[in-house]
Amino acid sequence: MTITITAFERSPDRGRGMARDMRVRWALEEAGLPYQVRLLSFAQMKQPGYLASQPFGQIPAYEEDGLALFESGAIILHIGDRHGGLWPADLHGRARATAWMFAALNTVEPPILEWEMPKYLERNESWYEARMPLLDSRVKQRLSELSHWLGDRDWLEGDFSAGDLLMVTVLRRLTGSGLLELYPNLPPYIARAEQRPAYQRAFADQLAVFNKSEQTA
Amino acid sequence: MTITITAFERSPDRGRGMARDMRVRWALEEAGLPYQVRLLSFAQMKQPGYLASQPFGQIPAYEEDGLALFESGAIILHIGDRHGGLWPADLHGRARATAWMFAALNTVEPPILEWEMPKYLERNESWYEARMPLLDSRVKQRLSELSHWLGDRDWLEGDFSAGDLLMVTVLRRLTGSGLLELYPNLPPYIARAEQRPAYQRAFADQLAVFNKSEQTA
């Protein structure tokens, strides 16, 4: 079996692990699976050949023995179902893990991206400063609800699962904003995840790609 | 087996099928499963008892013989895995359907919600009109990519799947905007889905709840 994922040839986040290949790398490391990486330029991501496997021209795409997949959430779901290691073996435990996977991607990430994207796209607009309190408040609402659920748990549901994996990658986008620190149990939750050996291997590997791209620039 | 979902006591969309219980009702109808509905006021959705089953105070939550689930994507995934009827039986077909489920919720819906929410939250702000072209362009990018993939297919992958179900509920948010009509294959795609008997039963049932709430108001 050969697994191949795609990633940015030159990561816009300069190797801080925010690109979505990090999620899949981490899941593959948790599952103990070797994989290859195909690096793409921004131009290559929009070419017809790539759009045939990733219709929205994003990274990562995933290939495994004739199966072509896209969307980091679906890729991680497949890894867990096919290879294990990402949630409890029982049906209910898996279902609860998937609830947190979707919560990370469809309830928590959207307001965080709405908060983050204006920094790149609307920084010079007259309304930029005036809108930020609104965007802050939407992020805080989700963080507050998440923090309340987490309480003094180590992970969202018993043992670590792909729900934690996705939630932590989403929360890490707020690093340096000061928002996470408003909820005292969230920074230690993220730190616990970052201390996992699988996380550290995945992080080192995506950083190595970026460092190499800098050397050859 | 008893299935119970939660829904708005009084839907903010006045029964147009935009609330997320519509997605789960439709999936349950496709799978041929009877279910009960527990209606909640906005105040009830934020009470501790409900937050224990839906940590973000949203609808729908789902209960089935001791399994409590939340997030419409995860609920639909569970329905398909446990009861069938929402994607092909083979592993690859299911994986491809889940790719479109996540694409609907994490790639297509976020720019559509970013486009929709200012209509409610920022309509009276000085920047409202000036920002709309930016929001339009982000929606158009995703619609263009989706339209390109769809081409002359009836559904995103061979037969109808939960990927189509979620994608159509996401696209329907743009009804009346004029944006869908820029891509000639998208309105017929939505119409095909709306013509499915399962869709029509689900739509009628959620509309009946709203009509009843109006009568008793």
UniProtKB/TrEMBL annotation, chains A, B:
Residue intervals of the GST N-terminal domain: 8-87
Pfam families: GST_N
TM regions (residue ranges): none
InterPro entries: Glutathione-S-Trfase_C_sf, Glutathione_S-Trfase, Glutathione_S-Trfase_N, Thioredoxin-like_sf
SUPFAM superfamilies, A to Z: GST C-terminal domain-like, Thioredoxin-like
Protein name in the entry: Glutathione S-transferase family protein
Organism: Sphingobium agri
